[in-house]
Design goal:
The protein has eight helices and seven strands. By secondary structure, it is α/β, with parallel strands linked by helices. A seven-stranded parallel beta sheet has the order 3-2-1-4-5-6-7, sandwiched between helices. Bound molecules: nicotinamide-adenine-dinucleotide.
Length: 255
């Protein structure tokens, strides 16, 4: 059976638990014919354990996206394993506890800087680290949480996601001439580790119960993963700098 990622080689970050959007992306990518490599943070052992639940075995490489040494050796590891890349998935977000949960007015810049570095700047650094392996063009896909709005509890992750959305547009501008497309999926709330680290996340998620046109299940990361796989495929050939909402349609509803 042919898949929409047949013959594609994809690097996927962010597989931590089965609740990770990246885990479902990796599973769907393999089912659709891709060869993948996973990166792991904070420890390869955690990601390796979860990777055993994927349809096919896959190499796992340690990558702290704020560590220049890790980024520096990534290209060689990818070359040795896959011989090149057609896609990159950035599924990484982090903000220190004092940058979340209603502490917006008191967060020190140090914590804001960490959130920005790991959650936004890293889309650029991950992409440029992998660039030598993307000789035939390709697709870079990241994950955002709609940064047009101020959300309860989300605090400095909001400006970090706004920065990520802007970084995506600048990457699209600069990489278009290499036929590399850069896009984001704007996902609705999913009860992953990243979400659970936001105090009051459940309160945020209840907005979807009352306002989302399509029913939304916070326990199901698969729709977001399907969106990522679609953007990795050849079926969005002239789309770049875009943000595709996989949020049940909530972004379209005023009240
Ligand atoms: P998750 O906790 O499963 O994934 C977050 C990942 O970020 C983890 O795998 C973690 O290892 C990785 N990470 C954190 N710091 C890192 C670092 N320094 N270097 C490398 N990796 C690092 O949660 P998730 O919900 O699957 O999150 C994936 C992406 O989706 C994030 O960008 C998140 O902001 C975004 N997103 C999540 C939701 C949601 O409600 N869960 C909604 C919209 C967008």
């Amino acid at each position: 059976m042919s898949g929409i990622l047949d013959g594609k080689r994809v690097l996927i970050t962010g597989v931590l638990l089965e609740s990770s959007i990246a885990f479902h992306t990796a599973k769907l990518a393999q089912e659709q014919g891709a060869e993948i490599i996973l990166t792991a943070f904070p420890r390869p052992t955690l990601t390796e354990r979860v990777a055993k639940k994927l349809p096919k075995p896959t190499k796992v490489v340690e990558l702290d996206v704020s560590n220049d040494e890790h980024l520096g050796r990534l290209s060689d590891v990818v070359a040795a394993e896959l011989g090149g890349l057609d896609g990159i998935v950035h599924s990484i977000g982090f903000a220190p506890q004092d940058a979340l949960g209603g502490n917006f007015l008191n967060t020190p810049f140090e914590s804001v800087a960490t959130a920005m570095h790991v959650s936004a700047f890293s889309l650029k650094s991950l992409t440029t680290a992998c660039l030598p392996q993307m000789q035939n063009g390709g697709s870079v896909v990241g994950l955002t949480f709609d940064a047009q709005y101020a959300w309860p509890q989300y605090d400095w992750m909001g400006p970090a996601k706004a920065a990520l959305e802007s970084v995506n547009r600048y990457l699209a501008r600069d990489l278009g001439e290499r036929n590399i497309r850069c896009n984001l999926i704007s996902a609705g709330p999913i009860g992953s580790m990243a979400a659970k680290s936001i105090p009051g996340f459940e309160e945020l998620a209840t907005v979807w119960d009352s306002r989302s046109p399509l029913s939304w299940d916070v326990k199901d990361p698969e729709p977001a993963g399907k969106g990522v796989v679609a953007l990795l495929s050849d079926w969005f050939p002239k789309t770049t700098g875009e943000i595709v909402h996989v949020d049940g349609g909530l972004h379209a509803i005023g009240a």
